[in-house]
Amino acid sequence: MVEKAASGHPGGAMGGADFIHILYSEFLNFDPDDAAWPFRDRFFLDPGHMSAMLYSQLTLCGFLQMDDLKSFRQWHSATAGHPEVNFKIGIENTSGPLGLGHAFGAGAAIAERFLATRFGEWMQHHTYIYISDGGIQEEISQGVGRIAGYLGLGNIIMFYDANDVQLSTKVGEVTSEDTKMKYESWHWHVIEIDGNDENQIRAAIKTCQAQTDKPSLIIGRTIMGKGAVKADGSSHEGEVETHGKPLGKSKASYPETIKNLGGDPENPFVIFPEVAAYYAEILNEKRKSVAAKRVLFSEWQTAHPEKARLLDQYLSGELPKLNLASVQLAENDATRNASSKVLGYLAENVGNMIVSSADLSNSDMTDGFLKKSKAFTHHDFSGAFLQAGVSELTMAALCTGMALHGGVIPVCATFFAFSDYMKPVLRVAALMEQPVKFIWTHDAFRVGEDGPTHQPIEQEAQLRLLEKLKNHSGKASFVAWRPADSAETVSAWEVMLNTTDRPSGIILSRQNIKDIPDANGNRLATSSQLSKGAYTVYETSDDADIILLANGSEVATLIEAAPVLEQKHKLRVRVVSVPSEGVFRAQDKHYQHSILPKDVPVFGLTAGLPVTLEGLIRDNGCVFGLSHFGYSAPYPVLDVKFGFTAENVVNQVIELLKTV
Length: 660
Ligand SMILES: Cc1ncc(C[n+]2csc(CCOP(=O)(O)OP(=O)(O)O)c2C)c(N)n1
Ligand SMILES: [Mg+2]
Fold this sequence. Notes:
Blueprint: H1 2-5, H2 10-27, E1 42-45, H3 51-60, H4 66-70, H5 100-119, E2 127-132, H6 133-137, H7 140-151, E3 156-162, H8 179-185, E4 189-194, H9 198-210, E5 216-221, H10 254-260, H11 273-303, H12 305-316, H13 335-349, E6 353-357, H14 367-370, E7 385-387, H15 392-405, E8 409-415, H16 423-432, E9 437-441, H17 459-468, E10 479-481, H18 486-497, E11 504-507, H19 523-527, E12 535-539, E13 546-550, H20 554-569, E14 573-577, H21 581-585, H22 589-595, E15 602-605, H23 611-614, E16 622-624, H24 635-642, H25 646-659
Parallel strand pairs: 1-2, 2-3, 3-5, 4-5, 6-7, 6-8, 8-9, 9-11, 10-11, 13-14, 13-15, 15-16
Antiparallel strand pairs: 12-14
Helix pairs in contact: 2-3, 2-9, 5-7, 5-15, 7-15, 11-12, 13-18, 15-16, 20-25
């Protein structure tokens, strides 16, 4: 496969083949006729570069065909280089950035416990994870190790392909850690085996299955490029260069290696008849055991019709009927508080929502949810809140893994400045189109005295780049909402809850914000126009001389400036709230022009980098934003120092109008 594609990673795949074959043939429960069967065991491959191994195994299991293997790494093939999530052919996640895959697996294991706690152990399944030296070294493994150990996720069996080799060096050149001891200290059950010995693999998996108290780690000593030989027949095993080079391009001989492994180099794409017959038998066994579980399931459905309907709803991703308008909001509140109230309502009305915070629940206000639920603790998943500790990257990946598992609605929260720690996950969740919901509070320099490290400036612009990046379904891969007041916060939540085809996030203020006045006296109804990405929140004439545009708390500053511009400067003013530029840009041109007519100058105000809004203005406009890091001071002082006052908006607009 790698040889034909003339690129790929043969070595790790050759060394791991023994494990994956034993796992899939003897242990992994799946339905050969329906790879997406919800009660299947999950298999998460952390090192996506070993995809040749997974694709080969999926071919043995009938999910892929030999022609798919022949088009390894080619345009539009089912066997892309790093496996792209595809439940229909047995691929649980898009592996690639090392470390993420095993965190997704741990998230899936949490979702499994959550559901089994509510619906019964009949639905329990294992999550098998395959990790390599790279994943073990990635920092995220610390978060996964700690959390899985603390929660006692005995449904995880992780195989560590310890082949002593990584991309550019031997493992011993970068670490001297005792991995066994490390995982044991996190309360994992660890065993060490020869990872190429089928009997030891078999025995290890059995031991781990019996260990339901703790997550298990099987450290399998394997041989990189197992079976690789040079032209003279001497060994070429354990070499760094087989990590990422086709054998023919390394010092190994491709034909001699194929011969050494019992194959025919002239005809390498073959499943030997005895192997095909063996797998046919195995797959029939799997069909039988799945059929038995399906019977159990339907018996359970008959005995528990209410629960069965609920489970159906959870698995379909459907929401119950909600009435967010009933959420009682306080006046002129911080948007994080409004969000907290929505979360309190959701805790009582959406039974499969799991909220998580990285040690900030009383600050990002996810405690609105927590107070009506409780946190997961060791072996207790009856609550619906994950206290992730301080580990934003891990938390985001766990939530993405929960989404990949299905049946639950994961939400995670932290300060906006620390969205930086989540970005690698956000990107892959966006690529995989997973509907994880992100809450980011403390959205601007108005965090004040916490100083520049906590004051997000460029974060919104970074996130909105993902709004411009299309996923493989042709949609903005991510949507970020920055609501202007409490009502918009509720409306944003409404849209987020209904966004089931991609991740989305909500960016919230720490400080109180004046509610946007509403001419119709029903601000909540008006704010639902947020679903178009941008809408008019203030105007006294539909023939504006100037449009003021912002999102989040800056909208209130514009609303304060508007009457001054009207009364003192005799200008006709429109104020537009743009909670999501990406969504606005997806509207038809007619709508876009109706909100932002071409010939009217636009003044944008953002507490972020000016580029955050610059995509919305033309030559006849400008954006006033921050172009430097913040400073530590109470936020009303920063408002004045940085010019985020109605008075400065008036001055800036007058200056702008002099130039157009
Ligand atoms: C986050 C991240 N950093 C770097 C890489 C590039 N990369 C791919 S594989 C690899 C190391 C591979 O070592 P190991 O995990 O032991 O795999 P093996 O060489 O044994 O196949 C690296 C650095 C990556 N895929 N992800
Ligand atoms: Mg390795």
